[in-house]
Design brief:
369 residues, alpha+beta, Arc Repressor Mutant, subunit A, 3 domains, 6-stranded mixed β-sheet, 3-stranded antiparallel β-sheet, 15 helices, 13 strands, globular
Length: 369
């Protein structure tokens, strides 16, 4: 991807990759000491790579077999691509988000799914829903030993990773296949109805009226924050609800009613765009407990096994789970900035989503006082 990106922007078959391995690692956003980088670079510099299409002549991506093995010489700073491949690349290139690529780079199936989504929507109309049957997806991405049920399970897992990393796409699945559409631009307010992340984005496709797919992600388990810290109430807790972004519609929705704006659940999560954090914050009602607790998860899904619980009194402390030092410092700064909101929600004095929208403040910039 990096080689193709560099060639596309340079419009040249000769791709510059930096003066040494450190430069290439910096461009790739990886650790320069990664052993795989040297190994893969040496393989690249001694390989022939071609593309074969059905009934078409092969297209040479590059051919480095005539060169001496790179282990015998110093660093080579260029790769020369085939002219036919470069011409096709310039004509058919699909834009991808570098941040998302880097986030998914360790999971090839998710990276494949993300690239396929980008290709599918690249030439689609703004509001168009693109549906691909499971049989087609199996032929593209499955293995010879996979049946349809096994492939569907693994591909849905890959799609969930893409969904967590990329907020620009609406995804939905049903027994027919996978449906895609560009997501409406997100605003800065959380939804009055407190929907979980996946259902609103899948429901956004229902607005078009062309289909009503099943939701890709099942609702999170009913596990309140304090339960993970072994201080849960004995009563059965209500299901956590997500204070997430309500999908925009083509017509301006009516203002939420007082009933829709009211928070009826014990748990509510704050999306990243509202807090300015890389993690998702979960607040809950205290129901008479003395010390307020805050939950932190790496993604919008509530997963008890990936939950970190923080106590906020007398100082911010990790009760369970574990954040890295820099993550903990950032989250702690947000907690101290929003102690009034945390305490009042814990005590049951904040009762509406609109009040959370109005009062939650983003984390201070790193290093600020």
């Amino acid at each position: 991807m990096h080689v193709c990106d560099a060639a596309f922007h340079a419009k040249s078959p000769v791709v510059e990759l930096g003066e040494d391995g450190n430069s290439l690692a910096a461009a790739l956003g990886i650790d320069p000491k990664t052993r795989d980088l040297t190994d893969q670079w040496q393989r690249l510099q001694a390989a022939r790579l071609v593309l074969l299409g059905s009934g078409n002549a092969e297209i040479s991506v590059f051919d480095a077999r005539s060169r001496r093995r790179p282990a015998d010489i110093g660093w080579r700073s260029t790769v020369r691509l085939g002219t036919r491949f470069l011409s096709g690349l310039v004509e058919h290139a699909v834009p991808l988000d570098r941040r998302v690529v880097q986030e998914l780079a360790a999971t090839p199936a998710a990276l494949d799914a993300y690239a396929w989504i980008g290709m599918s929507l690249h030439r689609a109309a703004v509001d168009q829903i693109v549906t691909t049957p499971w049989d087609d997806l199996l032929r593209r991405f499955g293995t010879a030993s996979q049946d349809l049920a096994e492939f569907r399970s693994s591909f849905e897992a890959a799609l969930r990773l893409v969904f967590d990393a990329d907020g620009s796409v609406d995804l939905a699945v049903n027994d027919e296949g996978v449906s895609l559409r560009r997501a409406e631009p997100a605003g800065e307010e959380i939804a009055a109805d407190g929907r979980t992340p996946m259902p609103p984005r899948a429901d956004a496709m229902d607005v078009v009226g062309e289909m009503q797919p099943e939701r890709l992600e099942t609702p999170p388990a009913t596990t309140p924050i304090a339960e993970a810290a072994e201080v849960a109430r004995t009563a059965e807790p209500p299901q956590p609800r997500q204070a997430s972004q309500q999908p925009a519609q083509r017509e301006q929705p009516a203002p939420p009613t007082a009933a829709a704006d009211r928070i009826a659940q014990d748990n509510v999560s704050l999306p990243r765009h509202l807090t300015g954090l890389a993690q998702v914050i979960w607040l809950r009602r205290g129901h008479g407990e003395d010390s307020a607790l805050v939950g932190v998860t790496p993604s919008p899904r509530f997963e008890a096994e990936r939950l970190t619980v923080l106590a906020v009194e007398p100082m911010v402390l990790q009760v369970s789970g574990g954040l890295h030092e820099k993550e903990f410092e950032r989250v702690s700064a947000w907690v101290m900035t929003n102690r009034d909101v945390i305490d009042e929600f814990w005590e049951g004095r904040i009762t509406t989503f609109s009040e959370i929208n109005r009062r939650v403040r983003k984390a201070p910039a790193p290093g600020s006082r």
